[in-house]
Amino acid sequence: MNIHIICVGKLKEKYLKEAIAEYSKRLSKYCKLTILELQDEKTPDKCSLNEEKQIKIKEGMKILKHIKDNMFVIALDLKGKTLSSEELSDFIKDSSLKGNSNLAFVIGGSLGLSPDVLSRANFKLCFSKMTFPHQLMRVILLEQIYRGYRIINGEPYHK
């Protein structure tokens, strides 16, 4: 299974980079993981709704350039479906069984994802009704994917 994380914005914080590196190392036992960081667009203070829309469109175009036809795209979106850890594990397992061996999880920038990216998504996933920083969301996502593989393989970790 190939897991692709396509995300907007560069990680700057050392503790987040270390967490990403740790989960990437752990996941290497289960899948081929690639993380693609795309440059975010600068959002001016007191940005108008039209400016926000244009920023999301620009970031969306960058994202879509990296989505291949054979990818099953999971967009992280507040309006998406909420899954438990067990359900995400089943989702990953079922995707593999259905021949979707290239899962692409997409994390937008601070303003979210463009309508074009959301329409390209095969599935929209919501982790919580709460809002998380998109950089921290990477760590949360990787941890849940790792937990999912541990569940799939009947290995201790999940309680």
Note the topology.
Blueprint: E1 2-8, H1 14-27, E2 32-38, H2 49-65, E3 72-82, H3 85-97, E4 102-107, H4 115-120, E5 123-126, H5 134-152
Parallel strand pairs: 1-2, 1-4, 3-4, 3-5
Helix pairs in contact: 1-5, 3-5
Function: Specifically methylates the pseudouridine at position 1915 (m3Psi1915) in 23S rRNA.
Subunit structure: Homodimer.
EC number: 2.1.1.177
Description of the structure:
The structure is a single chain. This protein has 159 residues and is an alpha/beta fold. The protein has a single domain (2-40, 52-152), classed as 3-Layer(aba) Sandwich (Alpha/beta knot). The chain has five helices and five strands, in the order E-H-E-H-E-H-E-H-E-H. The chain has helices at 14-27, 49-65, 85-97, 115-120, 134-152; strands at residues 2-8, 32-38, 72-82, 102-107, 123-126. It has a five-stranded parallel beta sheet with strand order 2-1-4-3-5. Helix 1 (14-27) runs parallel beside helix 5 (134-152) and helix 3 crosses helix 5 (134-152). It is globular. The protein starts with a strand and ends in a 7-residue tail after the last helix. The model has no long low-confidence stretch (mean pLDDT 94). It comes from Clostridium acetireducens DSM 10703. This is Ribosomal RNA large subunit methyltransferase H. InterPro entries: Alpha/beta_knot_MTases, RlmH-like, tRNA_m1G_MTases_N.
